[in-house]
Structure formats: C-alpha cells, structure tokens
C-alpha cells in the first residue's frame, strides 16, 4: 500500500554541480529537500522513485545520475543513461539520508494514461508499505523567455495540476491529454498519472510546499498523504 507520496520537479538546476556556489532557486531546492525528508522520516519499507523517461523500465536501485549528461567535460560517475528524473530523485533520497530499499521506475514519456494508471495501481496493490517520490516538471512554455517560448495554454494546464493536488482530486490527473502535455513540454504528465493510479482511496491530505515558474518552467513540490 502507498503510505505517503511526494511530488518534485526534475530540472538540472537541482544538481549541485550545475550551479556551483551560486544560490539558484534556493526555495525550490529547500522544498524538494523537505519533501524527500518527509518520505524518509515516514520509515516506509520501500521508496519508489517514478519519473518520465524515453521508455518504461526499472533501473537498478544502486544507479545514480551521470553528470556527463550536463557537460561532456565533467567526469562520468554512476550509471550512464539513467534518466535525469530518476537520477535527481535518487539524489534527493541520498541527501535525505535514506538507506532503505528503493526502486527506480521510469515511465515512458509517450505512455498513454491507461498504462500509467495501471502501473500506479500495481504499486498501490503491494502488501509492503511503499512511499512514492514522483518526479517531473510542469510546462516549459510559461513565459517569453521559457525554453519552449510562451504558449497561452501553459498556465492553465499547470494551474489544473496544482488544483488537482491541492484539493486531493487525483482522478483529475487522469484526464491530462498526453498530446497537449507534449506540445506544452510538460514532462511530469506520465508520472503524475502513475500517482493517480496508485492512490485510489478517498481524497488524500495534501500540502503544496512550492509552486512557481522561475525561468518560465512550472515547478510543483507537494506532499500527498492517503486517507
């Protein structure tokens, strides 16, 4: 069963080596650290990191982010090819001091909602006490200077996701259109739909720890506690 869940974005700026000593988005980093820390303090039997990737597959628990994804000049450590979302999720757990069982579960960026929901249901049906760390960004088209430039539909989609989490209406996440999400550069869509399939009880208790769009990309950090 799912005992707790946290949502975090997965921008490269979360990786300390990207920004060095410069304090970039400190509020976002602090919120992600708090979200991961709460999962660890809940003492689950296993934490499953769910994040978008090119294909759906499970990675070895010991896999870690390869910094050479960011710059060829940086030394390669860890397992090459680990998706950014899973690598950053693993990093957050490491920083929170987690040493228990973990699973790194990639969900393909183009998987239909039904596949994502079924994967979530499988996680939720486990007899073990499982916590979820759900990684993924909102739209990267929120402003003129955003990576994908401005799209007037972007803010509405991000607001709908925030509202679904804030009110505990996780079923609303199942209605997210994969095509629209792709057009708006929303990476979190498949992982959020896994979450919606995993927690199917009455509306959970939720808390938004961070919600903003610095650099024109929607970032949401939240805690979800099943009823």
3D architecture notes:
The protein is α/β, with parallel strands linked by helices. It has one domain: LigB-like (Protocatechuate 4,5-dioxygenase, Chain B, 3-Layer(aba) Sandwich). It has helices at 16-19, 26-41, 84-95, 113-124, 154-167, 178-183, 189-198; strands spanning 2-8, 46-53, 57-59, 101-108, 130-135, 205-212, 219-225. A seven-stranded mixed beta sheet has the order 3-4-2-5-1-7-6, sandwiched between helices. Helix 4 crosses helix 7. The longest helix has 16 residues, at 26-41. The protein is globular. Residues 72-79 have low confidence and may be disordered.
Task: Supply database-style keywords.
227 residues, alpha/beta, Protocatechuate 4,5-dioxygenase, Chain B, 7-stranded mixed sheet, 7 helices, 7 strands, globular
Quick gist of this model?
This protein is an alpha/beta fold and 227 residues long. The chain has helices at 16-19, 26-41, 84-95, 113-124, 154-167, 178-183, 189-198; strands spanning 2-8, 46-53, 57-59, 101-108, 130-135, 205-212, 219-225. A hairpin with a 6-residue loop joins strand 6 (205-212) and strand 7.
State the end-to-end distance.
12 Å
Named CATH topology: Protocatechuate 4,5-dioxygenase, Chain B
CATH class: Alpha Beta
Strand order of the largest sheet: 3-4-2-5-1-7-6
> Stretches where pLDDT falls below 50 for ≥5 residues?
72-79
């Amino acid at each position: 069963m799912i005992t707790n869940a946290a949502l975090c974005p997965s921008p490269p700026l979360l990786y300390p080596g990207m920004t060095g000593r410069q304090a970039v988005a400190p509020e976002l980093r602090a919120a992600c650290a708090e979200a991961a820390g709460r999962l660890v303090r809940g003492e689950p039997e296993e934490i499953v990191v769910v994040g978008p990737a090119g294909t759906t597959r499970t990675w070895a628990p010991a896999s870690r982010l390869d910094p050479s994804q960011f710059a060829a000049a940086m030394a390669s450590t860890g397992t090459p090819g680990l998706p950014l979302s899973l690598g950053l999720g693993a990093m957050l757990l490491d920083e929170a001091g987690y040493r228990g069982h973990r699973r790194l579960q990639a969900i393909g960026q183009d998987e239909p909602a039904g596949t994502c929901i079924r994967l979530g249901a499988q996680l939720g049906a486990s007899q073990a006490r499982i916590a979820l760390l759900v990684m993924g960004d909102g739209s990267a088209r929120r402003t003129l200077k955003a990576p994908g430039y401005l799209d007037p539909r972007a803010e509405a989609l991000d607001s709908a996701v925030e509202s679904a989490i804030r009110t505990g209406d996780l079923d609303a996440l199942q209605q997210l259109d994969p095509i629209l999400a792709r057009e708006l550069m929303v990476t979190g869509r498949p992982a959020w739909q896994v979450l919606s399939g995993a927690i199917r009880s009455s509306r959970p208790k939720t808390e938004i720890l961070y919600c903003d769009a610095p650099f024109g990309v929607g970032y949401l950090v939240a805690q979800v506690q099943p009823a």
